[in-house]
Amino acid sequence: MKKILLLSSFFLFFSCNKNGKKEECKTSNKTDKEFEMYQMSEMAALMESMYIENEKLKERIKKGDTIGQFPSHFLSIHKAVMTDQSDNDDFFKEQASLFIKSQEMIYKDPKNAKQHFNEGINACVSCHQVKCGGPIPKIKKLYIK
User: Fold this and answer.
1) Are 95 and 123 in contact, with CB atoms under 8 Å apart?
2) Is the model's pLDDT at 132 over the cut of 60?
3) pLDDT digit string, tens, across residues 72-128
4) Which of these, 131, 64, 21, 17, lies nearest to 123 by C-alpha position?
5) Residue 77 and residue 35: Cα distance in Å, rounded?
6) DSSP code at position 18
7) How is residue 26 annotated by DSSP?
């Protein structure tokens, strides 16, 4: 196996080196565009953070552990910059408010934490069904059964 890898590397090196000059290896996948690194919007980064925090919260609720305190940075959902600012419409604002209200209730009413948690997840799913459906399967994994 090592010999095959070594031999492949050897041929790759010489196929990209022409007349002793280093040249760019030509491949069929090459495009003339430069690669641009994707950068998350503030909202996307916030939602990733909320997802991670809710995964941890879900486990604490399921185990009956102490809930802790409401993560106040969740409130920035109302002002975080979106990839497409036109998505920050009345529907989004309503769903964001429902999410925040449900999240706050988890901490105010820990006896019904499971119900409040799932209501918050419902708000996320409802919004994503209209705005951006991609994360819905991931979000649905947060439900507490």
Assistant:
1) yes
2) yes
3) 999 999 999 998 899 999 999 999 999 999 999 999 999 999 999 999 999 999 999
4) 131
5) 30
6) E
7) P
**Looking at this protein, which amino acid is placed at residue 55?**
E
Residue type at position 57: L
CB distance 87 to 131 below 8 Å: yes
Task: Tell me the C-alpha distance between 142 and 56, whole Å.
Answer: 10
- CA-to-CA dists, residue 65 to 20, 58, 110, angstroms: 66, 10, 10
Alpha carbon distance 126, 139 (integer Å): 11
Q: Model's pTM, two decimal places?
A: 0.71
Contact status, residue 53 vs residue 76, Cβ threshold 8 Å: no
Tokens 């979000």 locate to 139
* pLDDT for residue 57: 97
Buried (b) or exposed (e) across 106-122, using 16+ Cβ within 10 A?
beeebeebbebbbbbbb
- Residue among 75, 70, 63, 50 nearest 128 (CA): 50
Q: Which of 118, 42, 119 is nearest to 87 (CA)?
A: 42
